[in-house]
Fold:
Amino acid sequence: MTTSKHRRSNLPLLAILALCLAPVIFAVLAYYVPALGLRPTGTSNYGRLIDPQRPMPSAAALTLTDAQGQPADLSAFKGQWLLISAGPGACPEQCVRRLYVLRNSHASQGKEVERLNRIWFVTDTAPLNPVVESAYQGTIILRADPTQLAAWLTADEADPQASLHERMWVVDPLGNLMMAFPDTNEPEEVRDDIRTLLKYSRIG
Structure:
């Protein structure tokens, strides 16, 4: 009689314990047993996460010069989030559009704006488009060898050289290339992805 009564008195406690453990068990099963179909298949980000992330190349692996023609080292920009695009000096319409998207994505980050820098890699020796120089002040301009640059930015693409002029990228403050955006059809999505990265990151 006493044992049966004792068991009944433990039932609410056991029920509460089961309710508390259920989300943990569900999460473990979802992560470690994908065959159960519990893991979500969709993603909320527009940009493609680069996996594995690719570390920033050394100055020897990526030869750069600044706007004054002086040697530059990309590692000088570690500690901030970097928004990157690349294109020829003449910077045709789509090139200008990418610069526009990154500039507006940067400017719309509110109090987080100081955590970001924009870099445009110029992939030839042609004079710069005057529109870029006048309308995109604040963008860091670096000339780079396109083959070396593609080895870092688009090494996983089917056509690395073509993709070099069709993408935008995010580099984290540790110097890791971690996200690539397709071209500029969804500027709001680019902005929102960057906002999410800044919101949940404690670095940079």
Residues 2-32 form the longest helix (31 residues).
